[in-house]
Write a structure and sequence with these properties.
alpha/beta; Isopropylmalate Dehydrogenase; 2 domains; two-stranded antiparallel ribbon; 12 helices; 14 strands; binds nicotinamide-adenine-dinucleotide
Length: about 350
């Protein structure tokens, strides 16, 4: 097994270093190779995703990614900006399924802006289709309107579209994921208004016939947005298109209140995945040793579970994180009265220690 380690920019290098230490201590047989990506790669090679980095990522079973970007690159031409590296990796690796879990750890219930009883024990998984929908549909552009409310006026347009195989494969990913959880899938659409999403609903319903052990329900996206803040615990797996998923996954992530805790994964049909924290490179705190490494450590756990078939090792990381939180250690972003503030390195140390202790005591 081979892991491509791409720390990137800003806090990326600090948090990935801790995830690598956690992986090392598990004593599993895999090779890790590190390469530059994002602004760091632009500085060294003149491109945010150099050929050598892309080649390494393609050959690996999984990519562990930190974060890219810095405001100082905002004036570069768009193809040279650090963030383009993520799009380039996803496209080249064919990663069409984005997994964004939203888990509320018991000890962090206070970090959410929702009432504790609404989110205590929350554990939902948003699966977003990542390579289709209105974000990629053609034609798109600007033109002079020939009809509509203002013929002759300048207008812009995009095209929403999904093919049957695109919907089928993301629906299968969702049903398979639900089988490993609470066996419930909510498919989110806007079938009442959009042809694309009536088709989405029909295809998901058809695929569901192959998964009779999983419960399926359908929900309009406006209602889903409401239910996520009203009664989020009623969801298990949510599957939806690219644009609705973009919005709902951020909404779901914020239910937990702490961006430094949220892992994510993007997978292709060979289970080859890119694993990264949901947050960015946080230039405001980079180099200070205060960033929370737990989202990246939890992304490494997802990598073990989804791409490397090491579910047991993934469980060990996740329970180590829970026990570290239970012991009262917190980085600044999740600190609250009565807990102990630690830096990036100390948080990594604590997770490593919790894993080692469990290994020794069995
Ligand atoms: P950000 O997620 O980097 O930071 C938002 C806020 O959250 C900041 O105050 C930051 O200090 C804090 N934060 C983020 N991660 C944290 C962590 N692990 N521990 C503690 N605090 C944390 O978003 P931004 O400030 O809007 O963007 C900064 C740069 O990151 C930009 O260049 C942006 O394009 C890039 N970005 C990259 C990715 C990615 O690599 N996937 C995603 C989002 C943004």
């Amino acid at each position: 097994m081979k892991i491509a380690v791409l720390p990137g920019d800003g806090i990326g290098t600090e948090i990935v270093a801790e995830a690598v230490r956690v992986l090392d201590v598990l004593d599993l047989k895999f090779e890790m190779e590190t390469a530059l990506v994002g602004g760091a790669a632009y500085e060294a090679h003149g491109h945010p995703l150099p050929d050598s980095t892309l080649k390494l990522a393609k050959e690996a079973d999984a990519v562990l990614f930190g974060a890219v970007g810095d405001w100082k690159y905002d004036k570069l031409d768009r193809p040279l900006r650090p963030e383009q590296a993520i799009l380039g990796l996803r496209t080249n690796l064919g990663q069409f399924a984005n997994f964004r879990p939203a888990i509320c750890y018991e000890q962090l219930v206070g970090a959410s802006s929702l009432k504790p009883e609404l989110i205590a024990g929350l554990d939902i998984l948003i699966i977003r289709e990542l390579t289709g929908d209105i974000y990629f549909g053609q034609p798109r552009g600007k033109r002079v309107a020939i009809d509509g409310h203002f013929p002759g006026a300048e207008e812009a347009f995009d095209t929403m579209r999904y093919s049957k195989p695109e919907i089928e494969r993301i629906a299968r990913v969702a049903f398979e994921a639900a089988r490993k959880r609470n066996k419930r899938v909510t498919s989110v659409d806007k079938a009442n208004v959009l042809e694309t999403f009536q088709f989405w609903k029909d295809v998901v319903t058809e695929v569901h016939k192959d998964y009779p052990d999983v419960e399926l329900d359908h929900m309009y996206v406006d209602n889903a947005a409401m239910q996520l803040v009203k009664a989020p615990k009623k969801f298990d797996v949510v599957v939806t298109g690219n644009m609705f998923g973009d919005i709902l996954s951020d909404e779901a992530a914020m239910l937990t209140g702490s961006i430094g805790m949220l892992p994510s994964a993007s997978l292709n049909s060979n289970k080859q995945g890119l694993y990264e924290p949901s947050h960015g490179s946080a230039p405001d705190i980079a180099g200070q040793g205060v960033a929370n490494p737990l989202a990246t450590i939890l992304s490494a756990a997802m990598m073990l579970r989804f791409s490397l078939d090491q579910a047991e090792a993934a469980d060990r990381i996740e329970s180590a994180v829970k026990s570290v939180l239970a012991s009262g250690l917190r980085t600044a972003d999740i600190w609250s009265e009565g807990t102990t503030q630690v830096g990036t390195r100390e948080m990594g140390d604590a997770v490593v220690a919790a894993i080692t202790k469990k290994t020794i005591t069995g």
